[in-house]
Structures are given as structure tokens and as C-alpha cells.
Amino acid sequence: MKFEIITDDGEMVAEQEEMQPAFVKGAVAAHEGRTEENPYRRNSFREAWDIGYQGVKQGKVIVKPQSVMKIACMYCQKDMGEKDGLGTEGETHSICEECWKERYPQWLYPSEKQ
Description:
Strand content: 25-35%
Distance between the termini: 36 Å
Strand order of the largest sheet: 2-1-3
Radius of gyration: 20 Å
Shape: elongated
Number of domains: 2
Order of helices and strands: EEHHEEEEH
Oligomer: single chain
Largest sheet: 3 strands, antiparallel
């Protein structure tokens, strides 16, 4: 799952868990209401985890789950990636290049247009 993590004054901290693992994992643990021990042994990682965890508990750090829409071809159901769901989870449809060329050979596929 992707998250947007910001401070209470709106400053972006991280967009997803892989960016700043210790801090973000602490913030997400607090956001999800998990009461767990800090899993890190190295002091720098322990401190980052604690800052994220306590930041959420104190209302100084806000975790907002981001919604994702998966894109599939409306004809063959081929996975075409994903996009920001703008608050909606689920699947949306488009048309892949192969299906476009099969159904609309007289027109260029949109990414081929200049």
C-alpha cells in the first residue's frame, strides 16, 4: 500500500514506505494502531522509527493512504499499470495497443500521434 506522509504544517515527508523505511514504518504502525516494540537495533534507525511513531501519536505527522486504480484493457484484460485513484480504489479500463490496432487499423494508437 502507498502512503502520503506529511507533517501537521503540510510539509511532505515521504510518499511511500520504501523511501524512509524506519521513520515511515513507525508512522504507519502508529497510524494502524499497532502497539509494537521498535524492531530496529541500530540507534539511528531506532530514533527514526520512534520519531515517526510518536509523531503520529502526537498529531505532528499525518499518514494518508493513497488510493490506486489498476488499468486493464477493456477488450483483452491485459494489465496496463496503475494510476492515482483520486480517492477511489478499484479498476479502470483503457485499450492496449494490440487491441487498438486490431479494432481501429485506420487510426494511429494515441501514443504514436505526433
